Amino acid sequence: MTKKYKIAVIGGGSSYTPELIDGFIKKAPELPVSDIYLEDIEQGKEKLEIVGALAERMVKKAGLDINIHLTLNQEEAISGADFVVSQFRVGGLDARIRDEKIPLKYGVIGQETTGPGGFAKALRTIPVIMNICKDIQRLAPSAWLINFTNPSGIITETVLNHTKVKAVGLCNVPVNMINYVAQVFEVEMERVYIEFAGLNHLVWGQKIYLDGEDVTEKLLDILITGKNFTMKNIPDLIWDKDLIKSLGMLPCPYHRYYYMSDKMLEEEIKEASSEGTRGEVVKNIEKELFKLYKNPSLDIKPPELEKRGGALYSYAACNLIDSIANNKKDIQTVNVRNNGTILDLPEDVAIETNCIIGKNGASPLTVGHVPAKIRGLMQAVKAYEQLTVEAGVKGDYYTALQALTIHPLVPSADVAKKILDDILRQNKEFLPQFQG
Ligand code: G6P
Q1: What is the mean pLDDT of residues 208-234?
Q2: Rounded Cα gap, residues 401 and 388, in angstroms
Q3: Which three-class secondary structure state does DSSP give residue 199?
Q4: ipTM for the complex shown
Q5: Of 254, 258, 315, 384, which one is the catalytic site residue?
Q6: Which of 103, 127, 180, 262 has the fewest CB atoms within 10 Å around its CB?
Q7: What φ, ψ does residue 289 adopt, rounded to 5°?
Q8: What is the mean pLDDT of residues 244-263?
Q9: pLDDT band at 257 (very low <50, low <70, confident <90, very high)
Q10: Residue extents of the structural domains in the chain
Q11: Please, which residues have CB within 8 angstroms of residue 225's CB and are 6 or more apart in sequence?
């Protein structure tokens, strides 16, 4: 008899869940799933019930025999699972909005994952992911953790270095970059191959191939003539022609925060005083989404979900699970332990890179050294990430201060300290590791 899988989704009440369910439905012929446990915390109960009912309708419409379970019990969800998908947000959107606003107060980019906003999110998330991993080790020791929880690279590095859980970190940015290239050349995504190297939300496409032909230059010429590339959550600022020419590779949408910090900051300030920060905008989109989800005649993933930044989330997640489950040994871009893949980074850090995916997880393909033009930024951000993991695990103020101080978007130790103190004050209830 073919094996059927149990999937646990931590943060199951998320508005993204229909995206994930849609992915499992599409993959059903190759990836038979018997049970999906959508788990959330007490505060997320109402959302969980709404989204869970929609998930049930979606599965029914697809004529599939998948049992959807809704639970507030993490142990029940994880116990015996084959895959644990983590997509939770500690403190909800209100915490995200605070993360975006604190840095802005000091003239620093305020973003959910990049810079001090992502740092605050990491500190809140680390104790929670450690607790989830304890349960996985105890109740589902052979399960794979598919981590989508942001900041995905930092959280994955925490799990890889501080737990025994088998984990792969995931992000939808690389697949969106592939999709962009496919759209530019009007071909299917499968014909495009990008040699990725970097960190989560700081990944470069070093070389781009179409049917085996190197089309990097052709693509960059198109990028600078205005066929712009971004994601719904990042302001669509046009890349500078000379920047792209000198870079000679495809930046990811998040690089704008580093390469165009001043313009991005201006944009954020403008947005914060008009429609609100991205978190505030998303809060409204979510309200609308949940109104739609409540409709008992809705039984598909609604197109309105595309207003969120998570495009192709389920494509990435379900392809990864499928390739692990079916030992496909295909190439996907995920977050893994460096292990000498990028020679300019320490071995024990998480990187985002092309890997062969099979039943043993993700084996990275060699990158070697990266050119100096991207090396410095990558190393600086990685050092910040390492210190953030350490600060988040140990609850150490001085490590946290160093992490923020060396972040390329933070101008001085003085500003770092002010931001850190605000973060710690405003997140007290979520930072047990810093108490005492
Ligand atoms: C992109 C990122 C994700 C992030 C999402 C936020 O897809 O890759 O890591 O979670 O955007 O989108 P939102 O709609 O919440 O701003």
Answers
A1: 91
A2: 9
A3: strand
A4: 0.97
A5: 254
A6: 262
A7: -60, -45
A8: 97
A9: very high
A10: 5-169+280-301, 384-434
A11: none
296's tokens: 């008992």
Give the span between the Cα atoms of 262 and 251, in whole angstroms: 17
Tell which atom from ligand 1 comes closest to the C-alpha of 308: 14
The pLDDT assigned to 2 comes to 84
Q: Residue 72 carries which DSSP code?
A: S
How many A from CA of 91 to the centre of ligand 1?
Answer: 16
Strand ranges, E, within 211-315: 213-214
Phi, psi of 85 (to 5 degrees): -100, 125
The pLDDT tens digits of the residues spanning 292-345 come to 999 999 999 999 998 888 889 999 999 999 999 999 999 999 999 999 999 999
DSSP H helical segments within 14-115, as ranges? Answer: 17-27, 45-61, 74-78, 92-105
Residue from 308, 313, 334, 352 to probe ligand 1 pocket by mutation (most atoms less than 8 Å from CB): 308
The residue nearest atom 14 of ligand 1, judged by CA position, is 308
302: tokens are 């609604």
* Conformational region of residue 431, where left means phi above 0, alpha means psi within -120 to 50, and beta covers everything else: beta
Q: Which atom of ligand 1 is nearest to the CA of 96?
A: 15
Q: Please, are residues 120 and 150 in contact by the beta-carbon 8 Å criterion?
A: no
Phi, psi of 144 (to 5 degrees): -95, 130
Which class in CATH covers the domain with range 5-169+280-301? alpha beta
Characterize the bridge pairing of strands 33-39 and 350-358.
Answer: unpaired
- Residue 233 CA to ligand 1 center (angstroms) comes to 6
Confidence class for position 138, pLDDT limits 50, 70, 90: very high
Asked whether the whole model's pTM tops 0.95, one would answer: yes
Distance CA 399, CA 114 (A): 18
Predicted pLDDT of residue 311: 85
Q: Is 254 a catalytic residue?
A: yes
For 153-186, the pLDDT digits (tens) are 999 999 999 999 999 999 999 999 999 999 999 9
Question: What is the residue with the minimal CA distance to atom 6 of ligand 1?
Answer: 309
In this predicted structure, what is the pLDDT of residue 409?
98
Q: Collect all residues with Cβ–Cβ distance below 8 Å to 288 and sequence separation of at least 6.
A: 304
Q: Which of 392, 389, 416 is nearest to 402 (CA)?
A: 416
pLDDT band at 201 (very low <50, low <70, confident <90, very high): very high
* 425 annotated among ligand-binding-site residues: no
Q: 133: buried, middle or exposed (CB in 10 Å: 19+, 13-18, 0-12)?
A: buried
Confidence class for position 226, pLDDT limits 50, 70, 90: confident
Question: Can you read off the two tokens belonging to residue 23?
Answer: 């992915």
Lining ligand 1 with CB less than 6 A are 113, 150, 171-173, 231-233, 278, 282, 308-310
Q: Are strands 5-10 and 83-86 parallel, antiparallel or unpaired?
A: parallel
